[in-house]
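Lab notebook, bench 4. We co-purified these components, and the gel suggests they stay together. Before we commit to crystallization screens, I want a quick structural picture of the whole thing.
Request: model the full complex, all chains together.
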Amino acid sequence: MLKTFRIGGVHPPENKLSANGKIIVLTLPEQVIIPLSQHIGAPATPIVQKGDTVKAGQLIAQATGFVSANIHSSVSGTIVAIDNVTDAAGLSKPAITIKVEGDEWENGIDRTEKIEHNIALSQEEIIKAIAAAGIVGMGGATFPTQVKLTPPPGNKAEFLIINGVECEPYLTSDHRIMLEKAEEIIIGVQILMKAIGVKKAIIGIENNKKDAIAHLQQIADKTPEIEICPLKVKYPQGGEKQLIQATTGRTVPSGALPIAVGAVVQNAGTALAVYEAVMKHKPLIERVVTVTGKSVKNPGNYLCRIGTPVSKLLEAAGGIPEDTAKVIGGGPMMGRTMLNIDSPVMKGTSGILLISDKEARRSPVRNCIRCSKCVSVCPMGLEPYLLAKLATFNLLERLEEEKVMDCIECGSCSFTCPSARPLLDYIRLGKTRTGAMLRNRKK
Amino acid sequence: MKLLVSPSPHLHSGDSIEKNMYGVIIALIPAFICSILFFGTGAIIVTLTSVLACLFFEYIIQKYLLRQQPTIFDGSAFLTGVLLAFNVPSNLPVWIIIIGALVAIGIGKMSFGGLGCNIFNPALVGRVFLLISFPVQMTTWPLAQGFAGSYTDAQTGATPLTLLKEAVKTGQSVNDLLVADTFIGYKEMFLGHMGGSLGEVAAWALLIGFAYMLIRKIITWHIPVTIFATVIVFSGILHLCNPDQFAGPLFHLLSGGMMLGAIFMATDYVTSPMSHKGMFIFGAGIGILTVVIRVFGAYPEGMSFAILIMNAFTPLINRYCKPTRFA
Amino acid sequence: MSTIVITIISLCAIGIVSAVILYFVAQKFKVEEDPRIDIVEGLLPGANCGGCGYPGCRGLAEAAVKSDTLDGIMCPVGGTETMSKVATVLGREVKTEAPKIAVVRCNGNCENRPRSSEYDGARSCAIEHALYIGDTDCGFGCLGCGDCVAACPFDAIHMNPATLLPIVSDEKCVACGACVKACPRNIMELRNKGPKDRRVFVSCVNKDKGGIARKACKVACIGCGKCVKECPFNAITIENNLAYIDFTKCKLCRKCVGVCPTGAIHEVNFPPRKMETDAIKANPAAKSATTISLSQPANDTQIIAKEKNGD
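Here is the predicted assembly.
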């Protein structure tokens, strides 16, 4: 019996079209656009100026405050602008644009393929190195890793849980790095274990990646403190709380953080980035991005520099298919629609998905038939039909009572609704307004 | 190229109102076939009239009264028509069926606001209205005579439930009733060779429909199983206390509208609770009320009333019975 | 016969006993309230729209009776007339406030502001605004999903299906402010209604630099400042590349309307000027709002006004 989370969940078609695509290193673009905010928290502050020459791996913006992240240049070249750029949503956000010249890297970065096993740094040094490298959650949440590894006083970490679940349909970047960079990931896991001082780590992987499970099991054979845990294929298994419940049986209380049950969760890609930062002195400047879609000519997994325009990735994948109606950054369940395909790949961009009108266009909205399917699929045990109605009428106190803040925005409710009601759209609105009300109350 | 933009999710399961409504109708096909085999042409005429009348009234009301786009093809009026037909005797005159359809759709569904807004099960609203307005025609059930059975001149007779009510009124022991010649036996009750409304007799066919709906995930097991369990326990206790006065659980499960009501009427999406906890309370209430009305009430059958009464409690149940939260 | 008599007598007895009990209970649990609150509540329109900022008409009545002055207490639906009556009953002074109306400060219809994407999410401006720039290149303009229409308790706003912009009805709008609160982009504004419901306003809230704004929408305010120079009453200011007419200073002379190069300034409910007819003959393609008012009203309240007058 495969482990899984207890309530709710749906089975969108997996469509892992690029699961067998070995990671391809993308050629360098002509210019990169590096946004100053690729993470949760305050945007980074630039420490370079227009006209400066930079090398790959050089620090170009510093973390502003505790919950923030450093940003490094992913290429060598000249800084052509530090100004507002149109982002994927069409909004103006500050970014550093660099014209690519050659491919020179900062001194000290080890670019060899040799796998380093000996973790010489101490716990504090590891966390400092991770912070210096600007590492953030690579599963898409982009939470600054050094903050997660520093639990608030009074909380003790017991397990490290690695999220190799990749429950979103279409995405395969984590799958490929678990196959091709397994040893590095295991060492990254060991580094993270040392960073938070735990003796046990569990790597959760959905059972549709049997080759990755077998491969990691073989490598982790020598490290009994790391357990590989195959999980039932069910969306959203990759949700933090669902993953913790499935792998450890513990339930994170409402409104609490995973550390409340002694768990720290990190994405598999983050573990790889941690290995590279600590053992190879390489900051977070490139990542594997899946480019996929039913009409895409060459769906695959591309290792590209942060700041590469998405259009370059699409070119490598065979161009934009004729029937593309939506370009999505991330997976189809929680990804964000992209308006501007020249916007850059960021630290949290796990994939670019192109879908046709037929697959993407929503059906007309009809009356709620009270079938309660949304209630059955909600992984947090909420009542989406009720939350959406309360949000429409702006009944914020009722929303708070009905625990709207527990919603993880996975989209299972909207996915399931037979009347095609945009449940999550309204629930998100309710969450934003209720969150604001709660923050005002605290003041 | 003009791109499409929306908040997530960007995929849909493909489920629709039609898939669910027509799915229930498909689940009713075995019972429909049985009704034709047992009651003959009457079954076809009643069902066809009911369905067409329901579709017609919904179209008229939506287009001319409410000035909305008619939605008669979404399957909900069709289903109401089928269920209304299955709840009435197969020799019911056409004009009565049409009145029933008008009440079911017009009052039971449209007056509340249309699909998704009604409090009471529309087919049951129609049926109860007909029962109260035309008690004779609604309680004269044809016997299961086979396909040759005529529509208007069907030979009518007592159903097991009417026999039971008579027996209790006249002081006859229930045991005597069960061994008498007039009782057809449990096997025949299960197969459906008895008098009754056109869709409620064949327990086995209805159970096949139940299995179909479970497999297609149209309904969950909670409401029907709770109703059956409650009926078994409650009537079982009564039977153990006084076997002469009270019939046993098997009798209650197989007689009257128990199967049809528990599987198809009580599980109506719009009028049943949204959480599993709520469904247990709902099912238990229906089970107890049905047995109480059957045993202590004036009517031989209590299922319709029990379901309508519990429908009234559904909003209250929804307010206080919340699903199991993750945390 | 006797059954009926007994029934009537017993029901009457029950009725009388219940009435007596209810009377005494009502007396015992009566909440002492200033009787003036009821009187004032009776004078109010009874719409319970919340436009005054109080919870319903009774809320306003309570506040009016309990406070010393009527400053800050104003019923927008009843207006000065109602407030004067309230002031008389309570023996207080009332401040006269100019009647206001909700104004839609955007003219980005499909012709002026081309659509660059298609929004397929829930039909709510708040949701679309939180998601992205909108289905045009102007991140400040009206999204057309109708949050203002839904918010209006007086049925005074409707969406024009041709332009995808909201139209405010001169007669029905009571300036309660619900639409202003509902619009996530602050496009709706309560402005003074001049005589004959006239008003002049900048129909744009785009704060981008002129070039960017104009590229997204033909009739955007580009912040050029011509109107500021033209205005004899110093009523116009430019901030963040956007002109704004202060309605307390504006005397409705319409000089600014004539000089605006993009036609961003609108005049509503004014008769067309003879000057403009000549101007049209000279340059039929002129983009001035007044030109548009003759052939194609800039703000569709003029259509409603025209229809009302039997045009």
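The longest helix of chain C spans residues 2-28. Worth comparing against the SEC data before the next meeting. Chain C has two domains: 35-90, 100-308.
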